[in-house]
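Q: Xre family transcriptional regulator, please. Structure only.
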Amino acid sequence: MPPDSDHNDARREPYPGDRAAAASDATAVARNSAPDSAPDSAPDAPGPAAAGFDSALGTFLRNHRERLTPADVGLPPGRRRRTPGLRREEVAQLSGLSATWVTWLEQGRPVAMSARALDGLAQALRLSRAERAYLFALAGKAEPRAATDPSVPAPLLASVEAIAGPAYLLDRQWTALAWNAAAAELFVGWLDAGSEDRNLLRAMFLSPRLQALVEDWPHRAARLVAEFRVHSLPHAGDAPTRALIEGLQDASPAFREAWASQDVEERQGGRRGFHDRARGIVYFDQLTFIPPAAPGTMLVMLLPAREPGD
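A: Structure for Xre family transcriptional regulator:
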């Protein structure tokens, strides 16, 4: 599909990453202006939201603080300690936060934390990868380190080849990281040897060969955009994601219309039809998995569609 030369910037749908980044920076400014000493009065009773969500976060932070010693983080032992682990003031020093904020977080107060502040806490508490992910999940924030880590375990890449039917692994921007021979044979205009762009969204909207392959292309393409809107939201501030969205809005009127619709869909399985050159129309049942070892990626498998009653 040729690029549209009559568009202008006013027609481009803004990406949520612009607002998310501004909100994160504003939270960081507020964090840095917090008082440096613990509050003198007792904390307010947590509200309904804090009773479950924030108390779990506070318990998690307190438990991990108490597991560490000054030697674990390169600090001198200091004066005699009456409680186990690090002091809150030491966690504040290591994380770049004020002691007041560390205290409030552990007490379960509904304190708004930026991803940058959470990252500082994770580093101060020497959290593992799984513990970091849990911390950010408790706080309802996307993990910045996960968003920029491109590493994918070699066994995961190799597993794609071992799948009998068409299978492929997508990164955060839905560019194929790996695919098997069956997928290359099926997806002409995207994964075949003659295609140069391995991004699924760009191929779906800019490759006439892939458009001809997909049954009911207008519906499938619009749904793909709705699914990507949900999947990409945690990584809205990533430069590659923003460049992908902006480039497609410039190049494809169909994508621009689908993106502006604000439709959202979960990435679900189901029947998929393709106009195969050799076999005619063929149907598959699609299964999508999120590999825990590579956050943000998706493993997609196409199994031969079962007939009703099979």
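A: Brief note, in case it's useful. Confidence is low (pLDDT under 50) at residues 1-11, 17-53.
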